[in-house]
Structure formats: structure tokens, C-alpha cells
Amino acid sequence: MSETRLIPRTRPMPRIPTPSQTVGPFYGYALPFTGGPEVAPVGHPDLITVHGYVYDGAGQPVPDALLETWQPAPDGSRSGAPGSLRHDPVTGQVIGRDGVGFTGFGRIATAADGHYAVRTLPPGGVPYLSVLVFARGLLHHLYTRAYLRPDPDDALLASLPADRRGTLLAAEERPGTYRFDIRLQGEGETVFLEFR
Amino acid sequence: MTELPVALPDGLSQEQIDAEVAKVQAGADGGVHPPRDFPPYRSSTLRHPRQPLVPLRDPEAVELSGPAFGVTDVTALDRDLTRQHLGEPLGERITVSGRVTDRQGRPVRGQLVELWQANASGRYAHQLDQHPAPLDPNFTGFGRCLTDDDGSYSFTTIKPGAYPWRNHVNAWRPAHIHFSVFGTAFTQRLVTQMYFPGDPLFAYDPVLQSVTDLAARDRLVAAYDHDLSVPEWSLGYRWDIVLDGPSATLFEEDQ
Ligand SMILES: [Fe+3]
């Protein structure tokens, strides 16, 4: 009937994406899992700890944020082994990773004081961990990056004004332990990213 | 009950919330996702960035890849929320199924779908949920599965109840199921909520109404699907999920 039907379409029409909604306050019995923050095998000689606090616009800690981290393996591979949520075949309970494959994925709920900690291995080929923030009150998650060193060749860091660049730099408190705070709003507000 | 069980500190009325929602929706820019600064959802006030997001278009970005899941990450029982305890949960048994695709309609295969929800009475199995509705000892309200080769997922669960919350006076959430979905790239990550068709609470809920575009809001509402209903067993709802955001493969095609 209509002429528009005669026009060939070379690719399917893009569809309307499903909108984001807040993770809400009650994800705690569902999303966090045993071993979620333990991305590295226990006792691995290269283990690093990245930790810090999540703060709101009044400077108060956020006790109900959920962070996810994603990164390459130390050898630079980005395929990520499965098994972050490895189950005990008898009880069906999540028992943690097998300590051999590197999944690259961490999930950490903040504690009552807004603190989180993830134990992982250094990312290969890039100086950062990708960090995703969910929280009650946040209708759409936020992406940021925790840079473990201030790489002068990094395009994102180079594009930022000096005062904002600092919000992406984790501070090495002692060898292998990095402090990375996230400020959702206000003074020292963390740089959040939009991928295009 | 004619009295509120707990007095609210500043007692904003539904009418005040509705007026704020109408104001934001009238000035909206047509985006699919909710604005992070959405005053009628009062918890958003101190938890949204004031600085604009920094745009990044980098084919080498780590975020264009993402975590993988496999047979060790789920069990066959994880998708049936009615079989996690010794007894049967109370409520209306439902089947919730759909497909996860990207914006081009390509299936998202072998990825993790997680859901969590209140029980049939509108109560979460969470110690901070103080809604005086009964807990169900036979229902936790959490499940997982992996999408199949077609991008399809399926859960058996109980229809959740509506519940009150303290955003404003007489604030009630429409019945909903929380979903967490992974794409092939970390940039496609989605946490959202699925609603049930025809719920009279839609118009009063600032969380659903935070999606200012009507067509996008409709994406959050499942459809009753008689073909998904299982005779003598469960009522079927279809809910397809379309992931936003670039992936490494999408970027190659777009060049
Ligand atoms: Fe909820």
C-alpha cells in the first residue's frame, strides 16, 4: 500500500532502549554475592586493594550504594573468565571464585559507613579499573574510572582540567593499597563518564 | 486505618509530588533514561552529579567489553523463585519471559539476568523493610538465569504486591520486579524495574514517572501473554529488554 514499504532497509530499525530505574534500597539480599569483592585469588603475590568511601552532596557517606568493577586481566585480555558467581553444586549457594580463572568483575555493596574495598590484580594494558555506581536515589547508574597511576598518555585524563582530573586518581596509601573515594555531588565531585 | 502509622517529617502531599512530576515532564528533552536530578523522587536530591557527564568515544575503552558468565554461575533452580524453600509461597504464580537484545535487535546471548522483588503482600525479605505486611517464610524473592542463544530468559515467580514508601504522604509503589541485566559490553549494563499492565498506581509513582518519555515509559510495562500462561499453573507476562549503549561490535559496524 504505502510507498515507504518499497524502500529496502539495510539494517533493523534501532529500538527504544529499556529505561533505567533505581536499584532501590532493598537489593541487599539479591545482588551482592559471596566473594563479590574478591576478584583476585586469595594470597596472590600481585594482589592490590582498591578502597574508599562513597559520599553524597552533603558530604555524608552513602550506606546503600552498590559498586561494580570491570577490568582486563593482568595479561591485557578483556574476555573475562566466567565463574564470578560460582555455585556449590550440592547446596546451590554461591561460594566464590575458583582462584584460577580471572573474571575481571567485582561487585561490592558499601557498608553502613559508606566504605567499600575490592581486592584484585593490576589491570593489563591500561592504568584504570572501570567503576559503575548504583544507589537508592540514583535513577540511572554512573560510570567512572579509578586510575592507579596518572598516565600522561591517557586521552581521558589529558582532556580534563587539572582540578577535576584528580577525582579519578587513586592514591597509593602504601604499596598495593589504593584509596579511591567517590563523591556523587558537590565539592570535589567525581568525574562521571558517558560512552558514545 | 485513618492515621499514618509514622508522621512524615515534612509531609509533602501527592498533589505536590504530581505537580513537580508534571513540571519536569513538560520541560523534558525527550531522553529515554530518567534525569538523575528528579526532585519528585526525593532521594535523588543529594545523589546526582551537578557537573555534566564527560563524553567518551574511545574504541580502546575497557568498558566496550564486559564480564562473562557461564554454567558455574547459575543453577537450574535459580530461575524458579517458588522452589527455593520447603513449602509453596503464597500469591499468584506467574511466568515472566522475554528477550534481551541490543538496539539493533541482535540477541544478547549467555548473559546474566537477575531479578528481585517483594512478596505477594508487598514486603521485601530485607531487615530495613518496615512495611507492616507479612513476610512469607517460603519466599525470598531473588532469582538468576542466563539468556539462551535467542537472548531469551524466563522466570517462575509470584506476582509482587504494591507497597508504601516514605517519599511523601500516602506514597505507594506500583507492583514491580527489579531487574539487573548484562550486555556484551559494560556500557550496556542495565538495572531497571518491570511493571504490570493496567496498574492504577502508575500515575502516582514518581519512580516510574521519572521516565519522562511516554513511549520509553511503556517499555517498562510487561504485557499479559496468554500463550505464556501455563494451564492450571501460572499466568504469563512477556517483557522484552533492549539494552542501550555502545559495544565493541556495534562500534565496528557504525564506522
Ligand atoms: Fe522495589
UniProtKB/TrEMBL annotation, chain B:
Residues 27-51 are annotated as: Disordered. SUPFAM superfamilies: Aromatic compound dioxygenase. Residues 96-124 form the Intradiol ring-cleavage dioxygenases domain. GO terms for biological process: 3,4-dihydroxybenzoate catabolic process. InterPro entries: Intradiol_dOase_C, Intradiol_dOase_core, Intradiol_RC_Dioxygenase, PCDO_beta_N, Protocat_dOase_b. Keywords: Dioxygenase, Oxidoreductase. Its EC number is 1.13.11.3. It comes from the Bacteria. It is an enzyme of class 1 (oxidoreductase). One of its GO terms (molecular function) is ferric iron binding. Belongs to the intradiol ring-cleavage dioxygenase family. PANTHER family: DIOXYGENASE, PUTATIVE (AFU_ORTHOLOGUE AFUA_2G02910)-RELATED (PTHR33711), INTRADIOL RING-CLEAVAGE DIOXYGENASES DOMAIN-CONTAINING PROTEIN (PTHR33711:SF10). NCBIfam families: protocat_beta. This is Protocatechuate 3,4-dioxygenase subunit beta.
